[in-house]
């Protein structure tokens, strides 16, 4: 049996990389992006040019956990 050859030219987890569509900056999802919460929205902005990369409803993990625990107690 042969051992597969690894391609080390790219980081192993390329799916977890965000790329700024304006300037091309690349970083992991939990990398150097500027995270902001405003008006119930959570945004990730590029640290190089300020472009908003993602915008979604802000997650409130603590509140969801409390609701799940309350439902489990019923």
From TrEMBL:
Q: Where is the DUF8106 domain?
A: 14-56
Name the chain's protein.
Answer: DUF8106 domain-containing protein
Record-linked InterPro entries? DUF8106
